[in-house]
TrEMBL record, chain A:
It comes from the Bacteria. It comes from Acetobacter oeni. PANTHER family: PYRANOSE 2-OXIDASE. Its cofactor is FAD. This is Choline dehydrogenase. InterPro entries: FAD-dep_OxRdtase, FAD/NAD-bd_sf, GMC_OxRtase_C, P2Ox-like. One of its GO terms (molecular function) is oxidoreductase activity, acting on CH-OH group of donors. Residues 416-531 form the Glucose-methanol-choline oxidoreductase C-terminal domain. Coiled coil: none annotated. Keywords: FAD, Flavoprotein, Oxidoreductase.
Automatic annotation (TrEMBL), chain C:
Its cofactor is heme c. Residues 51-154, 197-306, 340-433 form the Cytochrome c domain. This is Cytochrome c. SUPFAM superfamilies: Cytochrome c. It is found in: Cell membrane. InterPro entries: Cyt_c-like_dom, Cyt_c-like_dom_sf, Cytochrome_c-type_DH, Membr-bd_ADH_cyt_c. Heme c 1 binds at C65, C68, H69.
Amino acid sequence: MSSEQNLSADVVIVGSGVAGSSIANELARAGISVIVLEAGPRVDRQHFVENFRNLENKPSYQGPFPAVPWAQHPPDQQTPNEYLHTSGPDAEAYQQVYLRMMGGTTWHWAGCAWRYLPSDFELKTRYGQGRDWALKYDDLEPFYYQAEVMMGVCGPDPAVEDLGSPRKQVYPMDALPISYAAQQFRKLISEKTPWRVVHEPQARNTRPYDRRPTCEGHNNCMPICPIGAMYNGSYSVYDAEAAGAKFIPNAVVYKIERDSANKRVTALHYFDPDKGSHRVTGKYFVIAAHCIETAKLLLVSADEQSPEGVANSSGHVGRNMMDHTGVQVTFISGGEAWWPGRGPLETNVIDNFRDGPWRNERGAYLVHMVDDNQVDLATQLAISKGYVGRELEEQIRYLASHTVRLFSHNEGLADPDNRLTLNKTKKDMLGIPHPDVYYKLPEYTVRSCENTREVFRQMIGLMHGTDEQWTPGYFPQDHPAGSTIMGVDPKDSVVDGHCRTHDHDNLFIASSSVFSSVGTGNITLTVAALALRVADTLKKELIHA
Amino acid sequence: MKGYIMRKERGSQPLCLWHVSPNAMRLSRLLRMSRRDTLLAGMSAALAGSIGVAVAQDQQPSDQRSSNTEDLPVEEFMALSRRLTDRAELDQRIGDALCAGIVHGNAARAEQIHALHDLLTKGNFASASEFAHAAETQDKAYKDVVHEIMTGWYRGVADGKVVVYRSALMFDITKDAVYPKTYASGGPFYWTAKPPEVAVPTGQPAMSPSKFVVEPT
Amino acid sequence: MPDLKNSFYTLLVAGTVFAGPGTGVVLAADTDLAPAGRGAAIEGSGPDDEATLARGEYIATAADCIACHTSKGGKPFAGGLKVGTPMGDVISTNITPDPEHGIGKYTEQQFDQAVRHGVRDDGSYLYPVMPYVSYAGMTDQDVTALYAWFRHRVKPVAESPPATSLSFPASMRSSMAVWNMFATKETPGQGDSATYNKLKRGEYLANALEHCGTCHTPRNFMLDEKHDRYLAGGPLSGWYAPNITSSVSSGIGNWSEADIIVYLKTGRAQNHAQAAGPMGEAVEHSTSRLTDPDLEALAAWIKQVPAMDDDLEHKPRDSFGQAVNAPDIRTKVPSRIDDLSEMTGPHIFDANCAACHGRNGSGTDDHYAPSLFANSVIGTTRPDNLIMVVLNGVNRTAGKDHAGMPGFGADSQVQRLSDSEIASLVNYVMGTFGSGDPHVTAEKVASFRNK
């Protein structure tokens, strides 16, 4: 079945998350015609808020987002999983979750908007580890700022608190005033350790911004901000649509058509939910479909011209899978009541371990003190301890006010053996194979995690902690990267420094899949900056043409 | 970042409805819903205890619990609940729903509630702790029943489902400091102020401890 | 946030304001000319001394000139704000002292003609988008001060906003001359307004400067204010400017002077009301900046305005409702992401409003999000303002006090609610926390969009 409708645009984008929608917005504002193909449906906030309240397992932040059958996403982080199948020694540590729907996974991010450090782009040169990017920090700096303005990022004054990523402008919004719990954590760390706690830059409103209200501390950034005080991709979708971009929901791209020379992409083919097939032609194409889905699409598009998959002459599509696989501990502090859970979730970070000479042998990391409401956890803990009645209530208050949760983002490393492939037997209802990922945590990251555990033990000691609950093994952070890795050499990389595929002149990739190293900061701001840079390239080429 | 959940016995793997419906966009919602209902009916056995699934029950109660509360040991449940929470007053509406959920999750609970109520009326228990201790001493199986009653009132959960969220007692006893997620207790930056202090508890557990593990979601 | 596009002016026939394109009908200069040559003769002081300039600045604030003559994010007084009218958009003009683009060439007499008499420099009439019928009550001394401040302290801006281009019949313009003759204007105040006693000062502030009646006094069929119904309330293009007379049952007779003062200063009076829409702007730009004695004077004046009863409202608007005492019993599990089915009123409330206003409607502990009961917007029998707030939200800053609520209209980034969803929501909220279900229909909500 083929549609009779002739769909065509200057630029055709796959994926409506922060990357795809922000490119669409930039191009549409410049008068360029754009079609965005989104595999998932249109959605709205109010149903997610109700879904969250109706969800028994509140910490399952995938829980409020049951997928549609034609665009599955992982239902949770359990292994085995019904969609994302992981294997290898650290299979459970790569159980990533993400969302396939209009606006993408930023519907349930926590708004942490870090720039990478200049050193993150030169890991090989500076430390002899991993890979260098095919671009430098300075190349991305203007786009980092553009992304910060687009999202509305608040952060500290660089003159007062330098986060290590040089800035030409101050943050668009003032830093978020931190909670009492965070203030006390900051005080403790500064007085009792050689480390420091910094304000986390966040795409969260500290004043009304972009028709959205100031954060009111509903403490539910993940999985759903009930008032829109935090950026998500849906705002860029709205903006792009207002500027004339056409978004087609429930359009599952399954084939990338090229010309006879296999140098240029000519069209994308997508299935609607009834498996009706549609063809969309264009001058340029951007795959912005999340690290896992992007690699999957390139591999699914294998044909006689490209038996190993599109853009895959290097054989690196699906390889080099990275994350910020980390460590987590929850414990009960013996100090005063901090009452975490007042204000937004993630506001403060120990950033001393983001870079250092030791990076030649072990990965960097950052440490979050999570400021989330612990009442539910405290209640379960107190009940399990055998309390009832007044004594139970006393325990709940005590535990809820004294629980401390720490976790780390530890730097992964590009290893070609950590690889995404297509499942041989399991397919979705459209016949598209599920993704498989083999994952073995690189030794570089293992050593980093060991160092983190030692630091956490010191901190537990400082706070006279009890009831330590360590997350078993390693802790996936849902920051997958590397599956279409960037590099200067077409033989061992998929895209160049402008995120253009080496194999196809008019095919770009806007995703964390292009990252050559994964650093320590949350990936979203870098994804957005790379996407805006792709938009800039496309504008120049289309307007020049 | 990731959250945590308690390891707990779940009746089944989360039910996946992905293969249930192609959800043709041209079909009316009504037609789509009826297809889902039909399919769900055939899978209802697998549904019990599962979470995170799409269920076509939009504006109706999810089951018949509420319609036949007269068959449930509600008054005994309320008396037990008042004793186990050390509270003279509990909301009857919540009690009805919790009792229905607990019995729905495990039919044996009706008889156990009855037996525990017997124990309660025959003894003279001055506190929740005294009673819970006596219950566990009489029959180890009663610990689970007490846990479910506590989980019901304090977490608002029964039978693996949310019975109340905002109205769960755990939020009532912490409302001077924090609000349930998705609700705000103040305007912007209220969180910079110092929350109330909390004294170190002196009470002792009434029953033996159970396994408690934090694991990723 | 609603801007002036959504405000009261649409009920007035609108036209060019100040130095618009010179296409107006030039009327005979003697139709309504003010006495000439006044204002420059304040004893013992030159017109441009610091005290005069300070007075001028304060008068400009109290008269809220900036509200209309500055566009969103634009330079102060450079015009460019779109004001919606039934005939199309009127764009406010540049009133900075720039000689080419602003009013730099206006003599004081010409300035006075415009401000107090609605006649612009080419002699044509301003349409009463410009509230000159109120400003007519200003004293000569205050007009002089205002002129001095505009000339010397407002930064010239050498740009012209897009010209207003309305396509209504030319006859409309000349009809304004007739309207101007019949419209009831304030009588110029005499002497030094700073020396008035409290009540007289309050009256002067209310009528000549703040122009309260422009919105709060209903209008007759000629669109002239009905002076026998002074401040008795009237509809204003979507919003309803409520009865603020001393009637206990229909007005704000149950408010204390202190309540009125705190309302004007901050935009909210706990357990009474809060300002949004055009009143939110008036608070932000004008009343929150008045001196305490002036607020006291204004409140005293408002307190003694004769009670006018309303034909619909017979119990104080802020006397309805209470916190809902019902557990949030839940029977559902999460629905699939493409399930966008319309929810019932209570569910729409829970999903969109309860996060801040509380499931029981009592607002946040610090009243940042106000209680929904004991709240005039909900307790009124007229759902207009609640519909407008749901559509457009609130964004009001008064000094350090900020109030924010996102809108849920067609361009919301937070949640776009349909007409029928808003109808269900408004009916639930007013039924639960207010004076009763107003039975708003989706069609009625639709009529409020883009007002």
